[in-house]
Write a structure and sequence with these properties.
By secondary structure, this protein is an alpha+beta fold. Helix content is 30%, strand content 30%.
Length: 144
């Protein structure tokens, strides 16, 4: 999305801990509740945000404590939400991992990767970059 299309951008900075998932969800709810958003798209957004934030909380910093930044930009025309997740943890591109073979049974599949696979499937756009010492994962989702 071009910056000129943005009508609203907000940012939340929290400790990257699973305990802060409620604060992240409240932040997303506050931004999206006044907007027209299809229930299916809203559910997909909630799932993607939870998956990405929990991955940051569980893996980005190892045993250390760190921050997670969630920047949300809303575009009215067309109605799109952009979510940028940033952390200063270990460089890791979740999009580089091979997608799991969903045709295998749960017992046959390797552990991990299914959440990121779902994010890639439900988002309209997904991008990762390591920039200025930060992991930056961007997803976009149409609201309607």
């Amino acid at each position: 999305m071009e910056k000129s299309e943005m009508t609203q951008t907000r940012e939340l900075i929290v400790d990257a801990t699973v305990e802060n998932l409620d604060a992240v969800n409240d932040f997303i709810e506050e931004l999206l509740s006044p907007l027209e958003c299809l229930p299916k798209n809203r559910l997909q957004i909630d799932l993607a945000v939870e998956e990405i934030f929990v991955n940051i909380a569980n893996y980005a910093y190892g045993d250390k404590q760190g921050k997670a930044v969630i920047r949300v930009s809303i575009c009215q025309n067309p109605p799109i939400a952009e979510f940028v997740f940033m952390d200063e943890g270990m460089p890791y591109n979740p999009l580089a991992k091979e997608d799991p073979d969903i045709n295998l049974s749960a017992e046959q599949r390797q552990i991990g990767g299914l959440g990121v696979f779902l994010v890639k499937k439900i988002a309209d756009y997904v991008n990762y970059e390591h920039k200025d010492g930060k992991n930056v994962l961007t997803i976009q989702k149409k609201l309607t």
